[in-house]
Amino acid sequence: MSAKEVNLRAKLGRNAASSKPTTRASVPASPAPIPPVDEDDLVRKEVRVRPDQVTRLANLRRRINKARTAAEKGLDASEKSPSMTDRILARVALDYLLEHEDDLQGWTEQDLLTSLRNAKD
Fold it and tell me: What's this model's pTM, rounded to 2 decimal places?
């Protein structure tokens, strides 16, 4: 983990490294890094979200961008990370969901969310 990532995690109030060991056999201990993808190579997929999700997503995006800006203060533009967007956060959430697909149980949104929350990492 780079110093920049540790600083950003500290600014966000998160642990620099997870203390929970991964015990699932279907998810590798260190998932392969996601290769950079050009925006033009992504497939458009619309999703409808609740008003509270819109608000919380925007707050999270702003908090991450504020922490990123503070952590990267004084860096050259070429060294700075791109701004966080709602689209990036949605892709992260989707990747997390798919990494835990074996833990999903149920037929409703609430059932699936409950099973995901109860999954052991």
Answer: 0.69
